């Protein structure tokens, strides 16, 4: 039995005992917290969509493109918050940032059920935009570990999106009218209540960044190992060179640009497009809530599969090509206007696998910016901001609610943007390989033997880990 446990531990966390001990603790604290938050985020986002088609539209008097405006308002605030929010995580302890955001989110979600006008829901929905967790995950996990952890994080979001549909379908059958409230109001109450214990969990278990050495469940040796095992960024201070380093880097522009194209390509999976199409085909409201959850089931399969492969290869471009080709194939099916419902279901579910860039491309960004702490923080925020700068208005043109159930021009737009990802994937892969060969990206670790000969310590709490010029350094796999 002991041998079986050891083999299982090696399979999960690798052959190095120090890595296994650290990763086992992170995977039951840091990873579950962010995964649960992303699950609730998925439920919340789905709640607005399912509530809309389950009575909120009529109850609050939504008209014309107001549903699209609700999504747009949220995306605008989210985009504005991303870069300053992620940068804030390098200055303020992340525990305080995330828990404060969780509590605010819970309160705003609860207030939603009391709203009586469409514009009030649009406003509250907008305020719920905030920061993400990818930057923190990239600070603790290596290149060979990050993809699957990012996938687990994203999978919980997909499960939350699926659960939002299931919860609303269940509420329509069980709680509609209870307490004098329609079913669509109950979901906001339930989500608000679910958020509170997760916020408390975060207050206890968020380990902040490795350099803070703040995780109470790590011993002193593990805290120091966490600081050094990923190696040291070549740049890790806020100084006058920051903006030049960021704005002149290819990472800051290309990864966010390709992520933006991905987001535009999957807009047929957002904005209630499948539910609108099903309504046009005569499906029931419960079916409109349940069947689109299959998209998130295929998203889970694609996200996990692509992340595992990219971690094993220690390379992201191969699976990215497969994702780009799926954009093209799935969108082409929809553009062709399939003669049967089966064709539409195949296309929607196939395209669900292309949610994988949420894990794979954020991990790719962490890979190619690991050498520069500020570049990684700012680029991570910009990846969402730049994406949402386009997603805020794109659905108003290509997927307006007034076009339902025929979104043909949107399908064409998704085909074009999906095809554009392919050459950019090739370019990013080339630049990554070039700069790795030149030694300008990737973290470095100080040669301990040299430091011991010099009689100096490898590291001191609170001190920079940048190696001095005369110390031999080697690239590390992060």
UniProtKB/TrEMBL annotation:
Q: Which residues cross the membrane?
A: 30-48, 68-89, 96-113, 119-138, 150-171, 183-206, 250-270, 290-309, 316-336, 342-365, 377-399, 411-431
Any single Gene Ontology cellular-component annotation: plasma membrane
Which top-level group of life is the source organism from?
Eukaryota
Keyword list (alphabetical) reads:
Membrane, Transmembrane, Transmembrane helix, Transport
Its placement in the membrane is given as: Multi-pass membrane protein
Q: Where in the cell is it found?
A: Membrane
Q: Which InterPro entries match?
A: MFS, MFS_trans_sf
User: Lineage of the native species?
Assistant: Eukaryota, Fungi, Dikarya, Ascomycota, Pezizomycotina
* Gene3D superfamilies in the record: MFS general substrate transporter like domains (1.20.1250.20)
Which biological process terms from the Gene Ontology are attached to this UniProt entry? pantothenate import across plasma membrane
Annotated Gene Ontology MF terms? Answer: pantothenate transmembrane transporter activity
Q: Where is this region: Disordered?
A: 453-478
The identity of this protein, by name, is: Pantothenate transporter liz1
């Amino acid at each position: 039995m002991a041998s079986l446990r050891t083999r299982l531990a090696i399979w999960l966390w690798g052959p190095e005992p120090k890595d296994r001990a650290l990763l086992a603790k992170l995977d039951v604290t840091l990873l579950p917290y962010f995964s649960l938050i992303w699950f609730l985020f998925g439920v919340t986002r789905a709640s607005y969509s399912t509530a809309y088609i389950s009575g909120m539209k009529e109850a609050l008097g939504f008209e014309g493109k107001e549903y699209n405006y609700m999504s747009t308002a949220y995306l605008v605030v989210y985009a504005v918050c991303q870069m300053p929010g992620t940068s804030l995580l390098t200055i303020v302890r992340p525990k305080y940032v995330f828990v404060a955001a969780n509590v605010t989110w819970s309160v705003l979600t609860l207030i939603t059920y009391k709203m009586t006008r469409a514009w009030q829901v649009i406003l509250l929905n907008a305020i719920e935009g905030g920061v993400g967790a990818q930057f923190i995950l990239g600070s603790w996990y290596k290149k060979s570990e990050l993809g699957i952890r990012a996938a687990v994080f994203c999978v919980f979001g997909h499960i939350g999106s699926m659960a939002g549909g299931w919860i609303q379908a269940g509420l329509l059958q069980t709680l509609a009218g209870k307490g004098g409230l329609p079913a669509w109001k109950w979901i906001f109450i339930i989500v608000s209540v679910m958020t509170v214990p997760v916020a408390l969990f975060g207050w206890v278990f968020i380990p902040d960044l490795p350099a803070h050495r703040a995780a109470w469940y790590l011993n002193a040796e593990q805290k120091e190992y966490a600081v050094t095992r990923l190696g040291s960024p070549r740049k890790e201070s806020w100084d006058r060179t920051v903006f030049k380093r960021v704005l002149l880097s290819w990472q800051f522009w290309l990864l966010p640009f390709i992520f933006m194209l991905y987001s535009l390509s999957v807009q047929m999976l957002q904005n209630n497009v499948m539910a609108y199409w099903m309504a046009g085909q005569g499906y029931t409201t419960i079916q409109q809530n349940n069947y689109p959850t299959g998209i998130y089931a295929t998203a889970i399969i694609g996200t996990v599969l692509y992340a595992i492969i990219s971690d094993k290869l220690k390379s992201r471009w191969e699976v990215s090509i497969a994702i780009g080709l799926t954009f093209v194939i799935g969108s082409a099916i929809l553009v062709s206007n399939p003669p049967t419902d089966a064709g539409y279901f195949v296309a929607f579910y196939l395209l669900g696998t292309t949610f994988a860039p949420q894990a794979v491309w954020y991990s790719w960004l962490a890979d190619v910016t690991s050498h520069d702490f500020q570049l990684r923080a700012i680029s991570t925020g910009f990846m969402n901001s730049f994406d949402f700068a386009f997603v805020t208005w794109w659905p108003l043109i290509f997927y307006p609610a007034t076009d339902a159930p025929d979104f043909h021009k949107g399908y064409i737009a998704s085909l074009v943007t999906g095809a554009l990802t392919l050459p950019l994937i090739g370019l990013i892969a080339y630049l990554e390989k070039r700069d790795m060969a030149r030694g300008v990206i990737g973290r470095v670790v100080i040669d301990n033997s040299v430091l011991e000969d010099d009689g100096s310590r490898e590291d001191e709490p609170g001190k920079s880990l940048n190696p001095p010029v005369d110390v031999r350094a080697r690239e590390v796999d992060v």
